[in-house]
Amino acid sequence: MIYHINRVSMKPSATAEQVEAALQSWRNQGQTIRAVKSYVVGRDLGGDYEYSAVFAVEDLDGLFEYLTHPTTYETDHLGLSLVERLDIFDVSDDNDPELNAKIQELHRRRNALNPEIASMLADVPTYKGAGVDD
So where does this one cross the membrane (predicted)? Predict the structure, then answer.
């Protein structure tokens, strides 16, 4: 299993309605993307972020389906401009020593397929994680 985790803090200018719409868009991803086996969206408790979303997928194919699904792109368009801080990472019980490199390559492929999203990620004031080369 791969657990794809997004942690965010919103810009002070983000309205409550905009934040709720972004959270609902994350929930929509969990409900509509076939590769997502389970998910949780909500407040980030005990950390430095306001909200988090965790999506469980079975394997790399499932992760790529999640990354390139139209509802994921919809969430990017809706929410990335609202985000002050973003941390994206993955956790897995797969012991493949090359798994991180494979996951990073999926993010690079996703961004090559949709350069607008890569640009939006690069515009997030504080971004840590996969998807944008240094």
Answer: none
